[in-house]
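Would you mind writing out the residues of a protein together with its fold in token form for me to study?
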Amino acid sequence: MDAAQAIAGDVLEATVIYLEKARVAVNGACRGFEGWQIILIAAGVTLLVTRLYNWLDHPRLTIRQRVVHNFWSFLKGLPIIRGKVKAELAKNVQKIGEEMYPTKEGDHFLNRLPAEGISSDEIFKRLEQYKTATFADWKGGKVSGCVYGGTEELSTLCAKVYHDFAWTNPLHPDVFPEVRRMEAEVVSMSLKLFHGGPNSGGTMTSGGTESILLAMQTYRDVAWEKGIERPEIIAAVSAHAAFNKASHYFGIRLILVPNDPKTHTLDVRAMKKKISKNTCCLVASAPSFPYGLLDDIEAVSKLGERYNIPVHVDACLGGFLIPFMEKAGFPLPPFDFRLPGVTSISADTHKYGYAPKGSSVILYKDKETRNFQFFVAGSWSGGIYATPTMAGNTYATPTMAGMNVNTLHLGNTYATGMNVNTLHLGNTYATHTMAGMNVNTLHLGNTYATGMNVNTLHLGNTYATHTMAGMNVNTLHLGNTYATHTMASMNVNTLHLGNTYATHTMAGMNVNTLHLGNTYATPTMAGSRPGALIAGCWATMMFFGESGYVNTTRQIIAETRYITQQLRKIKDIYVFGDPLISVVAVGSDKFDVFRAFAALGKKGWNLNSLQFPA
């Protein structure tokens, strides 16, 4: 002990000596400056160091990416180069426009409304002219990846459904409860396909990009909740460009790892090396868009489990093929919620689900994660605004049971379960509902009471509710409130006239909210959406049924295997990897594939050109 104290004393004495020498040196260096000069120099150095740190610690771009970006920005900004770039862009824009939108002599683009409305017959005549001028022969089987459904019977069905639901808007669930129910059923059926459990949930979106954006925004917010200030996503270079968009939109750093040079799928070992304390999500594709190859999702799931990192499976392309492949006679390695590490899946109903364009689903293994998908602003003068997707003003959403609840609060309140009308005149705490029951409470102070089928009156202080099991919650707030977490196939409809925080819904549910106070809440990125697309998606899934999807999957996969087999016989081209699903990528070391694709294009074929490698 004495020896340790002696050593500590010597260290302390030496430290004091060095500090004294440093003090003398600094004072000597500053001796020739006046006080105001020292202050300015110190402030300038501090500002410079801060700016340098912020530049180096960019939330989205690495140092190399920033250097490259700034270098090219500088070059493009030079007057001599800027003029040439501008001229070339204008020339190419005109050329692309002429190729994409060919016009005949006397034809012209419309750039203003007609002075008078034109007849339906004239409109259809013009539409027919547009179709003749620009439509590719996608019905003839020469278009790759663009159109997935389109049979005459299905088109007739969807047209009739669209006609019947053209003016529906889920913003108004009390007016259009059937649309909300259909959306919930689409989500529930999708969860079943991917082996979701009783605690799973999801929402419909406008497409795969929005599904991916929502998942990445969710994991960014989960990371923030854990104290990770600079979250990072790790994905393969072949992952969909929507992950780049999510990085750009949400300030998340996207770390791209190479594909295995032999399999052209995600290199899991490279992904493991990139994992850090900032990693918020690992991404796998089922399959990848460029090559149509299935990543080793089982291995990625194990990484997620080991490091406690969420794993997102992007099944936007193959999402409505891969769940049916086993029954179709083409089993795949595990890819869905059966894997412990997989926490979310995106799948497009408007691809191999054959629904009309404009629908997709984002699915979560647990409802707690789905909570983070929602956005809330608690001090907006316009009041609560709740939407489950990306489009417009407000969007009202699906319930599993298609029920509505109307609640009125004239205080700082929140209320109730299913089919409950509530009036609050104070700061109240209201109800926990469980298992399809209604709870109505009467508060004349800071009280809490429960029962079934009761209306609530509150004259006190409030907190707000957790409902559990097949219930809907609708709230109107005129005060400072916190509102709701619903669990298991529920809806939340909220009207706020005060400073409110609102709502988390889970498991195939949506949130409908009206605010006349200081609250803004959204579970996804959209406002109003056409109920006709929801109805069209639901009708399509009903039309096919499980057996229909299994049959189409069997035909598609068998054709894919046949095409792959025949392509491998052609000299001077090769097939990328082992395409197990519906996309086959080919390349060549002998000739320019872009010239080959251009020649095929002149013969009416519309194929997707790739790069890196071509």
Q: What stands out?
A: Residues 446 and 594 are 73 Å apart (CA to CA).
